[in-house]
Amino acid sequence: MTLDAVLARIDDTLPDACDRLLDLLRIASISTDPAFEGDCARAAAWLVQELKSLGFTASARPTPGHPMVVARHAGPGRHILFYGHYDVQPVDPIELWDRDPFDPALEETSKGVVIRGRGAADDKGQLMTFLEACRAWKEVHGTLPGNLTIFFEGEEESGSPSLIPFMKDNAEELGEASLALICDTGLFADKVPAVVTMLRGLAKIEFTLKAADKDLHSGMFGGAAINPIRVLTRILGQLHDDQGRVTVPGFYDDVADLPEAVRAQWQGLGFDHASFLGGVGLTTPAGEIDRTPLEQIWSRPTAEINGIWGGYTGAGFKTVLPAEASAKVSFRLVSNQDPEKILASFKSWIEAQLPPDVTLDWKAPNGSPASVMEISDPAFEAARAALTEEWNCPAAFVGCGGSIPIAGYFKDILGMDAMLIGFGKDDDQIHSPNEKYDLESFHKGIRSWARILDRIVG
Ligand SMILES: [Zn+2]
Fold first, then answer.
1. Rounded to the nearest 10 degrees, what angle do helices 124-141 and 2-12 cross at?
2. Ligand 1: distance of its center to the CA of 123 in Å?
3. For the chain, which has fewer Cβ within 10 Å, the N-terminal or C-terminal residue?
């Protein structure tokens, strides 16, 4: 079997793969600090060289910021795009590092061998898992796997300012692929692989309720004048019902039910609900009472009051009847919920509850919808089966409570779904001192891609 030969090749050449990763990690490609502009360019050039040596056509494309690396190998089968980022976070506070962040090394630890250095896990180690899988494949098969585009960004850690314009300008070229693979996420748990297939969206708003034209003395006006804090807290106090559901009309209209098969996979993950909340000093789930915490954070929409202020909050006491009261409220969105529609119905819901003399000042609403991948695409099941084989543990399609904007860009600009598969671990200390990537993550990550490629393009 050629897959076995590819896997054996990966095992045999792992030390060389580590050396190549260490080379890349030595380049201080900190994207946010202009002092490292040359290093970012060097990292891009290093990758172009590497991709060319593998047989790709590759170039570093200039942008107003750091270059994009785009590489192409035309071959038979489905056209797949692989995304990663070569830039890294700054290293401060440097004194907390046990070694020079850009003098990486393999270290023996009580939990196994780790690759230590800035960018080891986020994202250089992860992007190299894919290149090394391509390398072993080529060495065994004599050619690269299938029909591939590689797309590396150098500004992910600094807000990706050039990404959307670049994707738009190159939509025809990049959009030739029909599926994106993104390697910038983690395992679900130690040794439990996962494919992220749903990412929640976000809508947010700050608003102010205004009443009297100035703050009033509560001795002179209290009882007769309306207090906007009272109005604000009454309204926001009814944002959820006693089942934990959001009461804004139409809020759940575009929320799809979780497919039964996905629910079953999530149950199989053995997520420890008690320690999830226990880890932050809580005991009791506070969301919708008929959903598990995992369902709540991955597949259900939320409304949260993020901040609320008004009146006198300084030292001592001031018996004021404030003229205004403000709040910041945000919604995590799922399925087809439209951020604009959600905020508009939230606004109408507030307005309908305002007593006479209270007005609403609505400030800069904004948001982005959820990303939900089309898991009926056979590549998803193929990837899940490949990961299950490699890790010897059932892989699952999982959600992500936060947002990973890149997945939405692939959908909106290039019209393709993304499979987010990564091998990071919770203790990798990405963005922090002493970042590491487990050698096991690197090794099994390479093997995982070989198995996935074998199933989807092989
Ligand atoms: Zn990253």
1. 130
2. 5
3. N
156 CA → ligand 1 middle, Å: 7
Measured CA to CA, the distance from residue 458 to residue 455 in angstroms comes to 6
Ordered strands of the 112-116 beta sheet: 105-109, 112-116, 436-438
Answer whether 93's CB lies under 8 Å from 189's CB. Answer: no
Distance 314 CA to ligand 1 centre (A): 41
Coil/strand/helix, residue 5: helix
Task: Assign 319 to helix, strand or coil.
Answer: coil
Helix (H, G, I), strand (E, B) or coil at 353: coil
Q: What is the pTM of this model?
A: 0.90
Which residue type is seen at 438?
D
Q: Which residues are near ligand 1, the ion (C-beta closer than 5 Å)?
A: 122-123, 184
Give the pLDDT confidence score for residue 354 in this predicted structure. Answer: 98
DSSP state of 255: P
Residue 428 DSSP code = G
Are 29 and 156 contacting, i.e. CB atoms less than 8 angstroms apart?
Answer: no
Q: Say how many Å lie between the CA of residue 157 and the centre of ligand 1.
A: 7
Which pLDDT band, with edges at 50, 70 and 90, does 385 fall under?
A: very high
Cis peptide before 123 (omega within 30 of 0): yes
Helix (H, G, I), strand (E, B) or coil at 222: strand
**How many A from CA of 124 to the centre of ligand 1?**
9
